[in-house]
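Rotation project, supervised by the postdoc (A.L.). Task for the rotation student: set up a whole-complex structure prediction and record inputs and outputs verbatim in this book. Inputs entered:
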Amino acid sequence: MKSGIGIAALVNIPAIVSAVIPGSSERKNNHYPMFKRGSTILFQGDSITEYGREKEKELPNNAFSIGPGYVYLLTAQLMKTLPNRELIIYNRGISGNKVFQLANRWQKDCLDLKPDILSILIGVNDYWYLRNGMYDGTVADYERDYRALLNRTKEHLPDVTLIIGQPFVLPNTEAVDESWIEPMKGYQQAAKRVADDFNTLWVPYQQVFNEALKYAPANYWTTDGVHPSVAGTQLMAEAWLKVVS
Amino acid sequence: MKSGIGIAALVNIPAIVSAVIPGSSERKNNHYPMFKRGSTILFQGDSITEYGREKEKELPNNAFSIGPGYVYLLTAQLMKTLPNRELIIYNRGISGNKVFQLANRWQKDCLDLKPDILSILIGVNDYWYLRNGMYDGTVADYERDYRALLNRTKEHLPDVTLIIGQPFVLPNTEAVDESWIEPMKGYQQAAKRVADDFNTLWVPYQQVFNEALKYAPANYWTTDGVHPSVAGTQLMAEAWLKVVS
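Outputs recorded:
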């Protein structure tokens, strides 16, 4: 079984993102009409989004302030593809954050930046810290807090375009085993309900990673089942770009 | 003139790399046959290659050890595209290096790693430090040292595939003015002679950046005329991938 996958993967280039998100990923004339001239794009989330970014200057469009994760990969692609769009791209992910911790810093780290486009990926810590006994919020708290956060955002920024990422985990890894799957589905379904009710774009990261498992094991795409590897950050960036294109 | 460029760029997606390096950049079935299963790929150079990478662990295939520059962008692309190729990718660029300083650390930082593929981008400091009076090596020293370095490399690693990058600068920037152009051509021609004589692959970064200037000014593609911006790192990564594809 395993060597069969290996041989197939050597012959066939994986169309991982395309297999999950319909539409051609090879469009040559993608103008990304969602991004207007001077649009501010803000990325929010936990360590997956933070990815070791520098947090003193927090500059837009700067490799170090963005950190070497999926946000940098998609920023580089957008900045190169749209050189006259004058995009302003911030990363404000912070390691360990759960949804209520986004709320605690939302004025400074979101509303004050007045994003035109806001991309949020949050949820794995809401479950992980509960599982570890370091937090007592439930999936119901997650959903309620997420809805409150988006209501507050829409109140201050009625024209903001919202993008919600599906929280994901990959079992058979250092941090994650099969017992995570069912409880994480609860958080994934909650995030999807929020995305549907707020009419946001939706990036199905879990589905993309599941598809990627056809080509290499979980330890190839993530470092521990929660954090993406270099290969995993590329998957995430491609998925995000495809959703916004 | 300038607003005319701006309008054209909004309507036409720049095919910058394709305009310089022939061949389709959108090939869906690029198997990168140059990279065998388990190939070790080493990137060498100065700060453009280093790009703030962590230098304690210096792990392969690790976002922090690779740093958020062009090496990370192309590594992410290769790791995602070739999940079963088991590539081992190192960045060993060090800020400020001239070609003789590569030689000083070549045993540890190149020969001991036994790369199958070795990509070198070096030269801008050989000129910059000469210009600043902090170094007295000439373009002849650069070429002689470069040839000696590659002879030594081929002696120890006769089967290594070599890739040489064209050193580049962009004037009308913080660090670079028009008076750099002619002397830098000397270093670029020397690097090209070395590449031709050693039958290496050649990445024409200067030509790629020159093409990019049709779409946005030098300060968009570099931070100071020497170091690439986020958009510039994407240009470099795409150019490199195209050359090896």
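Student's summary: The two ends of chain A are 36 Å apart (CA to CA).
Supervisor addendum: Chain A has one domain: 2-22+31-244.
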